[in-house]
Specification:
By secondary structure, this protein is an all-beta fold. The chain has no helices and 22 strands. Strands 9-6-11-13 form a four-stranded antiparallel beta sheet, with no helix packed on it. A hairpin with a 4-residue loop joins β19 and β20.
């Protein structure tokens, strides 16, 4: 039972049930006193598969890497017409042989991989692909060695400050570091556009 008034409806479903909880096109209802309201929710089946292998730069399997299939990446949308183009994200960790398999709803996705930056690898280049129940995807994602660096200094009002510094690239790379004196160096890769940011705690 709920009180009369305006309500916003939301829901969540465990993906292991085989369905995806997409955003609702209309989630607000108004209920009057002693009124019963029916509100239907349509679930999308996880009816497609993105599988593949993650590799080290030397071509050997990369275990324990996080592989994600996302309908948005670095401000880009995989499908401008999709209702949930900012919402749908599924992921898995690779096994000892570097293999992964991700169940998704039919659609277009950015597939990418990541590891803790302190391991020294640059993430694989993201891949954009479309899958459905009859057309699964088989993807190979190869992590890269850093072949360049980004260096600089963080300051506040002209004075160096301790900070956390990060950078992400438009092809899927990510790097971060902490600095106590304002100076920093980040691992990076060539022939890519990198975006750098920093945050500092002030008193």
């Amino acid at each position: 039972d709920v009180a009369e008034g305006s309500w916003r409806i939301g829901y969540w479903i465990d993906s292991s049930a085989g369905y995806f909880d997409r955003p609702l096109e209309q989630n607000e209802i108004t209920i009057g006193a002693n009124e019963d309201v029916t509100f239907d929710i349509t679930l999308d089946p996880l009816d497609a598969t993105i599988a593949g292998t993650a590799l080290r730069p030397d071509g050997t399997p990369m275990e324990n890497a996080w592989i994600s299939a996302d309908t948005s990446f670095a401000g880009q949308k995989s499908d401008e017409g999709s209702l949930y183009n900012w919402w749908n994200n599924q992921g898995r960790i690779t096994d000892a042989e570097g293999h992964f398999s991700i169940r998704v709803a039919s659609g277009t996705y950015f597939v990418s991989g990541s590891l803790p930056p302190d391991l020294g690898y640059i993430n694989p280049e993201k891949q954009k692909l479309t899958v459905d129940a009859d057309h699964p995807a088989d993807v190979t994602l190869q992590f890269r060695e850093s072949d360049s660096t980004i260096a600089g200094a963080v300051s506040l009002n002209g004075e160096p400050v301790a900070a956390f510094v990060w950078a992400w690239s438009e092809k899927g790379g990510y790097s971060d570091t902490s600095t106590t004196d304002g100076s920093y160096t980040l691992n990076a890769s060539q022939y890519d556009n990198w975006h750098v940011g920093a945050v500092s705690e002030t008193t």
